[in-house]
Design goal:
alpha+beta; 14 helices; 4 domains; 35 strands; globular; eight-stranded antiparallel beta sheet; Jelly Rolls
Length: 704
């Protein structure tokens, strides 16, 4: 290809500048997304810590717990531009963050709280803002204070100060403008600020409106809380370039203030152009967009070809002996950010030579060990794939290439990986409370209903992300309580992606070959060997019923010791109008009846024999969040009679008059949304069961 001569380069530069000046001018003032639990993120984040705030392992601590009257701030190192004097345009912004406030007092008393703030840049620490001032504003009641920098804040106040806080609540979500007295607030139930939470703050420059939404993740039984008010950033005294960050303070009472993740984005649009320049810019923009689309399509096609060459496409997977290792595997694993490679020696030291004393559990896949990575100061769980596992390498590759690219607070975080000779090791964040099944069937510590409901919603949120919110649909294929891990606050995190496969975001997308655990597998999948998002929904439905009832999918009934199938037993109670009798008797009636009924009904909906009448995971979650009504289920479910596929995937449903209807996967999918949206199967309600699929035996994990 011909190269530009030195004489031509200035001309080319001027030409590029001329073309760029014709394009619509959009400036993103500030944009970042930090998940502090991911390796290396906290260390590389552009943050300024003030006073007692500090980075700690996988989070930011805003206050020092070793003493009372501690204050702290953390701010982003770059400024956000709130407006542009040249154009007169103002910036809108949205920020999302997850955090925790935890009382460490002998009594239930708390104090004082934390806040998100927008203030002067470069950021600084107020000199007299301890206790109830939340390190947000200097104390105006102190005559010695003469400097009160303009600040807009969203406060999460845990203690009522009678001098300025609302008199009708102890805790509140407030919006503050240059004053510790909230301009507007929403009262919260006492004790709400005690656990994990997530918040979203939005500023709309067009309407000069500041709004905040708070969700109490550790208390899913409570709804989200919102508050809004009018704020003019210029009128509030803020400068053109402002700092954004968090502040917190404690008084005599000690509480933790921790930040786990933080994203921020602001956009400032300059539309001051002549009509002629706008038209020229539009043409140039369309041309550049066309070029971009062409390049993107070409890159996508090239990537698909690459996947086909590597054998990673979501259809038939290769035999375990064909799975690449060593350099080929390294090339795949090390692309992009995320988990890192560890040396075998590092992991051996972390587990004290894979000592039996550090072993957390063992199964057909291998063993899991507790470990401590000294350099990172991180406690981890290390899975050592069994050398005798027939599917070991395939599951290892699936874990790294799939879960290593996923980021969601209800998914187990893959920290790293290692392969050396015949050793395959996976490093995860340590889940201190183990797996759900350990607690669900514990004879000593009974999971309370609020905790169970939180686990249900968190697991569903993870599945929603996998099925509909990531760039490709991830079919997990092994959803069950032993793969739902629990952190220190009993937040659920779905793990074990060894059987997971990628499929397209399209109707009828599926992966072939039998995989999963009997008892949680869709009966149709057990016959046809095809798994899809609908089969994951079936497994999720089984988990819902199991968590609500405290019974395994196939278990002895206490009264007569006969083996019963959980779904059939609950269906009979539903038909008889005694559905709440299915509730776990160990709860002793201590549960929310509406939530219990909703979980049981949605569980039955998810395990409908015809996947065309099952909900999508989004519809199931809407019902569980009480954003949509409960489905109207038929009094008797039709019983599917499956036949192995011959060229296409087919299943039939037998009715009471002996006739049968046969459906193809693609045609069933075409009517699925219509059936789901009505949440009923009235057209099949007259059918009576005359045959059942082969009974499944609990606990056996089947792989391809």
């Amino acid at each position: 290809m011909a190269m530009a001569t030195p004489k031509c380069r200035p001309v080319l530069i001027l030409l590029l500048l001329a073309v760029s000046s014709c394009l619509p001018h959009v400036v993103t003032s500030l944009s970042f997304d930090y998940n502090f639990s991911a390796p290396g993120v906290l260390a590389g984040a552009d943050l300024k810590y003030m006073n007692d705030s500090a980075p700690v392992l996988d989070r930011i601590d805003l206050t020092n717990l070793s003493r009372s009257w501690s204050t702290g701030r953390v701010a982003h190192g770059q400024a956000v531009r709130l407006w542009d004097d040249a154009t007169g345009k103002a910036a809108s912004f949205t920020t999302n963050f997850t955090f925790a406030v935890k009382s460490l007092n002998v009594t239930t008393s708390q104090g004082d709280g934390m806040a998100f703030f927008v203030g002067p840049y470069p950021p600084s620490m107020p000199t007299d803002a301890s206790g109830g001032f939340l390190a947000l504003f200097n104390n105006r009641g102190n005559p010695a204070n003469t400097y009160f920098p303009p600040t807009v804040g969203v406060e999460f106040d845990t203690l009522r100060n009678v001098e300025w806080d609302p008199n009708d609540t102890i805790s509140h979500l407030g919006l503050n403008v240059n004053d510790i007295r909230s301009r507007n607030y929403t009262a919260l139930p006492d004790g709400s600020f005690n656990g994990a939470m997530s918040a979203s703050v939005r500023y709309d420059a067009g309407t000069a409106t500041l709004s905040a939404t708070l969700r109490l993740d550790d208390m899913p039984e409570l709804s989200s809380y919102t508050v809004s008010t009018n704020v003019d950033c210029r009128a509030a005294g803020l400068t053109q370039d402002a700092a954004v960050g968090f502040s917190a303070a404690i008084g005599d009472y000690v509480e933790q203030h921790q930040i786990f993740s933080w994203s921020f984005e602001s956009t400032l649009t300059d539309d001051i152009m002549t009509s002629k320049r706008k038209e020229t810019g539009l043409v140039a923009g369309l041309v550049s967009t066309g070029i971009f689309i062409f390049v993107a399509v070409a890159a996508s096609l090239g990537y698909l070809q690459y996947l086909k060459r590597k054998g990673m496409h979501a259809q038939d997977a290769p035999q375990d002996s064909d799975v690449p290792l060593d350099q080929d595997m390294d090339d795949v694993f090390e692309k992009g950010a995320g988990p890192r490679r560890f040396s075998y020696d590092e992991l051996s030291r972390a587990t004290r030579g894979f000592s039996d004393e550090e072993k957390l559990g063992e199964g057909g896949f291998g063993a899991v060990y507790r470990g401590y990575l000294q350099e990172q100061g991180l406690h981890v769980a290390i899975k050592r794939i069994s050398k005798t596992s027939s599917q070991g390498r395939r599951e290892y590759v699936a874990e790294v290439t799939i879960i290593g690219r996923l980021r969601h607070r209800n998914l187990v975080l893959l920290v790293g990986w290692c392969h050396k000779a015949d050793e395959l090791l996976l490093v995860y964040e340590l889940m201190t409370n183990g797996s759900l099944d350990e607690h669900l069937y514990s004879s000593t510590n009974i999971l309370t209903w609020p905790t169970r409901y939180k686990i249900i919603l968190g697991t569903g949120s993870a599945l929603l992300y996998l099925h509909q919110e990531w760039e490709q649909c991830v079919v997990h294929r092994d959803i069950k309580p032993s793969n739902i891990m629990l952190d220190a606050s009993f937040n659920p995190k779905l793990g074990d992606f060894g059987l997971a496969r990628l499929v397209d975001h399209s109707r009828g997308g599926y992966t072939t070959m039998l995989a999963g655990t009997k008892g949680y597998m869709d009966p149709e999948c057990a016959v046809t060997s095809r798994a899809s998002a609908e089969t994951d929904v079936y497994s999720f439905g089984i988990v819902l019923l199991e968590v609500a009832c405290g019974r395994r999918p196939i278990a002895p009934l206490q009264e007569d010791e006969n083996k019963v199938v959980l779904v059939q037993w609950i269906q009979k109670l539903y038909v008889g109008g005694t559905l709440l009798d299915a509730a776990d008797t160990r709860l002793d009636g201590n549960f929310d009846a509406q939530e219990m009924e909703r979980v049981l009904v949605v569980g039955l909906w998810c395990v409908h024999p015809d996947y065309g009448f099952r909900p999508s995971i989004r519809q199931a979650m809407s019902a569980l969040h009480f954003e949509a009504p409960a489905p109207d289920l038929p009094p008797e479910m039709p019983v599917a009679m499956y036949a192995p596929p011959r060229g296409g995937h087919r299943s039939s449903y037998t009715s009471s008059n002996g006739s049968s209807s046969t459906g193809n996967r693609s045609s069933t999918s075409d009517r699925a949304e219509e059936n789901r949206s009505s949440a009923s199967a009235n057209t099949k309600s007259a059918r009576r069961p005359i045959a059942t699929p082969t009974n499944q035996t609990l606990g056996t994990r089947t792989t391809e």
